[in-house]
Write a structure and sequence with these properties.
The protein is an alpha+beta fold. The protein is built from four helices and 23 strands. The termini are far apart.
């Protein structure tokens, strides 16, 4: 009787042990399966797409840059997201350089404001940097509530002895942000960039695209020429036969994209200086140029503060290559050639 009871107890122990071992094996198998599923999900999960170098909510800075005799060569144009060039007076042009996500030690030479610069600072939601300005530009800054830093009243600027005044005023992004803090200016933005940047390389293969390895833009005072470098896939900027280079680094001024906007300019009645205004409101003809090709576009700006939208001829907003862009604003009568 005792032997039979002992056998039953041993049998029960064996069964329980078997169940425990089975549960342990099942748990291990489930863990392996779960781990495998997790690894499979990680493999199948789409990698995060790279973002434009200009992505983010940091506010832009728009700087009026001198472009006459003693100011040339300038510095840090290559670090600008956008460089607008347009007539100001006497056949002379001036730049508005727009910076985003860049720490720049020296920008300049900085020069005075013009009303059309106010427009493009507005559409980029920029803090506007200038050294004085025309009376109308100063009135517009006040009337439109532009957050600006003016060299006539700010100590954020310094002058270099290597250039002649008034073509020698310089500034840094560090000084600009410090000044913004003092003035209580907003340092972030909820607005999108003016241009729609693509991290995937864009090559203009449309039937309507034309060859644009060399782009000639004959402003009255400076015959600008952009020459495409197939190795770097960038355009190098010339004035006449001279390659323009950075004053401090010696690097050639280059750009990934060129946009041409045809807009009338006219002499203002503000004073006898011959200062120019730009008729930039409306739907203007233009070109988008990149990687040695060009297509015709439309440049639509509905209000002074509204962003210019650059559309193809079918009415779709274009994407541009992720890189810096020169926006050349020229009169419709200008004979621009591409080859």
């Amino acid at each position: 009787m005792r032997i039979r009871l002992l056998i039953i107890i041993l049998a029960i122990i064996v069964v329980i042990a078997g169940i425990l071992l089975g549960l342990k094996a099942f748990s291990k198998t489930a863990e392996i399966i779960a781990q495998g599923t997790q690894n499979e999900e990680e493999v199948l999960k789409e990698p995060e797409k790279p973002k434009s170098k200009y992505y983010g909510n940091e506010r832009t800075i728009a700087v009026s840059i001198d472009n006459v005799g003693d100011a040339i060569p300038q510095t840090s144009l290559n670090k600008a997201m956008l460089v607008y060039e347009m007539y100001v007076e006497g056949g002379l042009t001036r730049f508005l350089a727009v910076y985003k996500n860049e720490d720049v030690e020296t920008i300049g030479p900085v020069r005075s404001a013009r009303p059309c610069f106010v427009d493009y600072a507005l559409e980029n939601d920029s803090i506007f940097i200038h050294y004085g300005g025309s009376q109308r530009a100063k009135d517009d800054i006040k009337k439109l509530g532009i957050q600006d830093v003016d060299g006539l009243v700010s100590k954020a600027f310094w002058r270099t002895k290597e250039k002649k005044a008034p073509h020698n005023a310089l500034i840094s992004t560090k000084n600009i942000w410090e000044e913004a803090d003092k003035k209580g200016y907003r340092k972030t933005t909820t607005e999108r960039n003016v241009l729609n940047y693509s991290v995937d390389e864009i090559n203009l293969e449309e039937e309507t695209a034309v060859v644009a390895n060399t782009v000639n833009i004959p402003y009255s005072s400076s015959k600008v020429k952009f020459v495409y470098n197939e190795e770097t896939k960038l355009y190098e900027r010339y004035v006449g036969t001279a390659l323009r280079k950075d004053w401090l680094t010696g690097e050639a001024f280059t750009t990934k994209n060129i946009i041409i906007t045809y807009a009338n300019n006219y002499t203002t009645s503000e004073d006898n200086s011959g200062r120019q205004e730009i008729e930039n409101i409306g739907n203007k003809d233009g070109y988008y140029i990149t990687n040695g090709k060009a297509i015709k576009i439309k440049c639509l700006k509905q209000t002074r503060s509204g962003k210019t939208v650059y559309n193809d001829l079918a009415g779709n907003e274009i994407s541009v290559n992720d890189g810096n862009t020169y926006i050349q604003i020229v009169p419709p009568s200008m004979n621009i050639t591409m080859e």
